[in-house]
Amino acid sequence: MTQIDGSLYVLTDRRAAGERSLVEVVHAAVQGGATVIQLRDKHASTRALVELGRALLEITRPAGVPLIVNDRIDVALAIDADGVHVGQDDMPAPIARRLLGPDRILGVSAGTVEEARQAQRDGADYLGTGDVYGTPTKADAGIPIGVSGLAEVARATSLPVVAIGGIQPGNAAAAIAAGASGVAVISAVIGAADPEAAARKLRGIVKKELEMRD
Ligand code: TZP
Ligand code: MG
Q1: CA of 165 to the centre of ligand 1 (A)
Q2: Where are the domains of the chain?
Q3: Distance from Cα 70 to the centre of ligand 2, integer Å
Q4: Which CATH code fits 8-213?
Q5: Catalytic residues
Q6: What is the tens place of the pLDDT at every residue in 44-77?
Q7: To 5 degrees, how large is the angle CA 195–CA 201–CA 205?
Q8: 100-142: pLDDT as tens digits
Q9: Which of 11, 38, 90 maximizes ligand 1 atoms within 8 Å of its Cβ, making it the mutation to test the pocket?
Q10: Radius of gyration of the chain (CA)
């Protein structure tokens, strides 16, 4: 099992980055203390994903920050990324684990207790759980599970749970208090006017709450 520090997990989103390049925004997020970066783009061509992924690795690898590719195991292997994140409609986790081998990081989206237990049996290293608060960013995120749903999932697994969906500085601590090991964000960092400052602030909130809890 690979341990990850998921305390501030930042997902890329071209739209949220606006006019700025994602490479520039991710660089700022890493400077501000992002602990994981996920390359996520459901519409980009394979070539564009490979090129962006390579550029992101030049930032993340020297910083010791894992780069996880959303869904695309082929892209992750092609660029030698640190891992893959699969959702419930993506490659089944046991197959993803087999393709990735034992050492790369496998994250699985789990919004219910049953999905969480299954993902753990299937070899996940961490779970992504949400939509917690209601997201403006993902159209098909479903009904928010709230901090109560998050707490149920966290209680059902010994894996680190990263909370996602509508996380902002004002509600991040409550997600940690509910049992999450970290928060995953798009708009709060990638969409921020100052992504470095936004990352630093969120990381600080999570760190403080984790120290209080443990
Ligand atoms: N999965 C569940 S919610 C979400 C994803 C990818 C989007 C999170 O974006 P934001 O802007 O941090 O709410
Ligand atoms: Mg997915």
Answers
A1: 4
A2: 8-213
A3: 6
A4: 3.20.20.70
A5: 40, 109, 138
A6: 999 999 999 999 999 999 999 999 999 999 999 9
A7: 140
A8: 999 999 999 999 999 999 999 999 999 999 999 999 998 888 8
A9: 11
A10: 16
